[in-house]
Amino acid sequence: MISVLSRKGGVGKTLLSVGIAQVLGERGHRVALLDRDPEGSAMGWQHGAQAVGTALPYQVIGPIEATRLDRVEFLVVDTPPNDMRTLQDTARQSHVLLVPLLPGAGEMDRLQETVQALSKVELQDGVQLGFVLNRLEHDNVSSAMKPALEELGYPVVAQIRKAVDYQRAFGQLIPAHLTAPFREALTALEVLE
Ligand SMILES: Nc1ncnc2c1ncn2[C@@H]1O[C@H](COP(=O)(O)OP(=O)(O)OP(=O)(O)O)[C@@H](O)[C@H]1O
Ligand SMILES: [Mg+2]
Questions:
Q1: What is the mean pLDDT of residues 122-130?
Q2: Pocket of ligand 1, candidates 5, 7, 14: which has the most ligand atoms within 8 Å of its Cβ, to mutate?
Q3: Whose CA is nearest to atom 25 of ligand 1?
């Protein structure tokens, strides 16, 4: 079980969840993406795809369907912002945790809330934790992020640049030229070889 978590909203949890699910699905794995966000963005992504007849290589499910999952190799979980209970409950059950964040000093501060929430959870043995920088631009603020996180001992497993094509991908497959960061994250966390 691979979960994508952050206490902060709008940092790219849903994009990262969908990207991870797509990359695993395209490798031929059976993947379910569990949408634990009542806003239902991941579910909306699937509905969008169905509306235009695009087949996604993973299925998006809700909490009820998750109780009767069968023969799924990877369960990817998208979580809501500002929901301590769901964050901690998801983290407790996960083998891989991904925390996306945006560039900026304020974002680093907000990240501490997520790290603190995770520190209060009894995590699975051998759990892998990785941070994903999202919406990076070619400026000093963005380039300062990776070193700053690493100085705190937080491993950066992927970097996603800001691109309007990520926004346009809602309800679609993420275009192949934009999927490298998702593969990198999975490789760094030893989910993929
Ligand atoms: N790298 C990127 N480049 C451009 N737009 C992006 C990028 N990442 C995310 N976005 C856009 O930013 C918005 C928020 O992203 P997303 O929905 O993935 O965040 P979230 O953390 O799931 O938000 P919420 O907390 O509301 O669930 C979306 O409109 C998405 O298309
Ligand atoms: Mg979301």
A1: 97
A2: 14
A3: 9
The minimum-distance atom of ligand 1 relative to the CA of 9 is 25
0.90 surpassed by pTM:
yes
Q: Is the pLDDT of residue 184 over 90?
A: yes
- Between the CA of 189 and the centroid of ligand 2 the distance, in Å, is 22
Quick check: is 190 in a domain? no
Residue among 21, 11, 4, 16 at smallest CA distance from 129 = 4
Q: Is residue 193 in some structural domain?
A: no
d(CA 193, CA 31): 17
SS3 of 135, please? strand
Count of domains observed in the chain: 1
**Ligand 1 atom nearest to CA at 136:** 1
